[in-house]
Amino acid sequence: MKPTIATESEQPEIYATIRRELPAIHRAVSKMGKQMRGLSPLSQKAAIAELTAIWCLANYPA
Fold it and tell me: Which of 20, 34, 43, 58 is most buried, judging by how many CB atoms fall within 10 Å of its CB?
């Protein structure tokens, strides 16, 4: 399934939600980062890559 990319003028409610939720997203990422301490190096790299991708999509949705 291909993701839909929309500009702020096309989807203002999505952009408003993301801006409003950014602090909560940052807190959640920090909390998840602390939980990665017990993982193997390879698992840590995979988890960090996934978190980075999610964070980028949240900050830069277009």
Answer: 58
